[in-house]
Amino acid sequence: MPRKPPVVFPQEQRLLSELGERLRLARKRRKLSNAVVAQRAGISRTTVYKVEAGDPGATLGAYVRVLAVLGLEGDLNLLAADDRIGRKLQDLALEPSPNAKRRKAHPSPIQSREGPA
Asked: PROSITE patterns in the record, alphabetically (predicted)?
């Protein structure tokens, strides 16, 4: 019995479709057939078609295998490398809240009330 395909929102489907198209173009630039990519990746030709179509049912492993055959697996290091939102959230957590009361500086017991000696 086939698995139920994952729920994919339109924006995510567009991203997958664009990735698949880039992979298809990369394969064609290298003058490789679907059969050759499938054989080298150790996956079926149907899976290669799914990857190039941006099918959300294709596994991440299949995408990685196709990237590796095309010599593009290093591009995976760029995914989520710059977590701007996470850093902003982290920085916000480090800032004191605007409602926090600031402590007034008290003179230290070593200093006299007349000032330093």
From this structure: HTH_CROC1 (PS50943)
The DSSP letter of residue 94 is H
Domains by residue range for the chain, with CATH: 15-77 (1.10.260.40)
Binned at pLDDT 50, 70 and 90, residue 90 comes out as confident
Mean pLDDT of 11-33: 97
Residues 35/44, Cβ–Cβ less than 8 Å: no
pTM of the entire predicted model: 0.71
In whole angstroms, give the CA distance from residue 89 to residue 67.
32
